[in-house]
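Incident log, support desk, overnight shift.

02:14 A customer reports that sequence design results differ from what the structure should imply. Their input is reproduced verbatim below. On-call engineer (initials T.W.) acknowledged and began investigating.
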């Protein structure tokens, strides 16, 4: 009888052990699958934001904290929240500001800190407790070359000690966050180099005509301000900046004798100059990442009423970005000196632009443009584009 009960007990204990082992194996498989998902999102070419969302998604579904955040050390050496889950912007700002010393110690020691229960008098942790969190974890994110880059923070409303298995998962996720941050920095640097190179190229081309120096940069800056008002994404703004810098690059094929001519142009010279929009588009055509930019550049001299070139399209048929460039281009042209007249004042140029709204220029873009504070832009840049804004110039 006793032996029988013992056998049943042993058998039950074995079943429990097996079930526990199966649960651990299932958890391990789930964790591995989540890590693989994160790896795939990093390698998939998703945007940095997309990768961070994928990481946060897998992280919260695996560990189920009440809130979480990824913070990085920014260029000013303070902590900035990159992404958070279930935390307010106000809280994120506050945590970044007041917890600098705390995060520094986590980063310096390169060790995960798990406060199971925040006690009453732990100074800066009061902010966390005031949000209703009792438990807190902060784990260092180490980037390539062993550089501490940020911290992963997890918050719980109940006392929580993370298991060894969970801490291992956090370590694995953090190493992936480190890779994603490295990748984002690299992409940012490449973009900076791209913009710097394109700006240098635009300036080099403008050197052929002293009346156009600084024009492309001014057009790009103005266009970015309009894009900001229209709430373009960072990617859209970035592309529009390229378009502003490259819109007149086709002038490279226009002979200097025509570009620098101060007297009236012949019909043939006009024809050559007008080709620059198509040539600008052709020059950027082989650059795969600038496909959309190519079209915006081609149409930067189209007019709202269809009287522009090269295709004579009108209104909404003209790409929005081309309509933005057209307004900025007109302003830059009018506020630059000419061989035959001085630059218009900001006030006069704005009045001229308002006069042609709904005729040559998109009235909606003109109204946004007129609401901009142009003090932030480089002023006094010279430009010779009378040939491109005939009607506006005729009024000037
Ligand atoms: Fe142009
Ligand atoms: Fe231009």
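02:41 Re-run completed on a clean worker. Output:
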């Amino acid at each position: 009888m006793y032996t029988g009960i013992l056998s049943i007990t042993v058998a039950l204990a074995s079943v429990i052990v097996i079930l526990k082992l199966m649960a651990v194996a299932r958890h391990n498989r789930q964790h591995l699958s989540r890590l693989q998902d994160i790896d795939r999102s990093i390698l998939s070419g998703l945007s940095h934001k997309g990768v961070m969302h994928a990481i946060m998604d897998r992280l919260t579904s695996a560990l189920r904290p009440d809130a979480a955040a990824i913070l990085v050390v920014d260029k000013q050496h303070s902590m900035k929240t990159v992404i958070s889950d279930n935390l307010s912007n106000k809280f994120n700002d506050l945590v970044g500001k007041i917890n600098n010393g705390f995060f520094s110690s986590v980063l310096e020691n390169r060790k995960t800190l798990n406060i199971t229960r925040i006690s009453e008098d732990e100074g800066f942790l009061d902010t966390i407790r005031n949000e209703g969190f009792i438990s807190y974890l902060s784990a260092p994110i180490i980037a390539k070359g062993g550089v501490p880059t940020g911290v992963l923070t997890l918050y719980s409303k109940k006392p929580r000690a993370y298991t060894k298995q969970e801490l291992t998962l956090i370590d694995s996720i953090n190493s992936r966050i480190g890779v994603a941050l490295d990748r984002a920095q690299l992409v940012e640097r490449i973009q900076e180099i791209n913009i710097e190179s394109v700006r240098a190229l635009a300036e080099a081309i403008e050197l052929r005509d002293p009346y156009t120096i600084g024009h492309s940069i001014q057009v790009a800056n103005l266009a970015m301000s309009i894009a900001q008002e229209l709430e373009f994404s960072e990617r859209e703004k970035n592309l529009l900046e390229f378009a502003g810098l490259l819109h007149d690059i086709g002038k490279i094929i226009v002979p200097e004798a025509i570009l620098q001519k101060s007297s009236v142009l012949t019909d043939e010279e006009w024809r050559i100059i007008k080709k620059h929009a198509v040539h600008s588009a052709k020059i950027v055509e082989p650059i795969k990442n600038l496909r959309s930019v190519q079209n915006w550049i081609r149409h930067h001299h189209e007019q709202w009423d269809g009287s522009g070139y090269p295709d004579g399209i009108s209104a909404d048929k003209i790409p929005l970005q081309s309509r933005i460039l057209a307004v900025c281009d007109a302003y830059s042209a009018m506020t630059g000196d000419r061989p035959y007249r001085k630059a218009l004042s900001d006030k006069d140029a704005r009045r001229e632009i308002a006069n042609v709204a709904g005729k040559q220029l998109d009235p909606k873009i003109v109204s946004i443009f007129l609401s901009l504070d142009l003090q932030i832009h480089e002023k006094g840049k010279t430009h010779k584009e009378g040939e491109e804004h005939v009607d506006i110039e005729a009024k000037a």
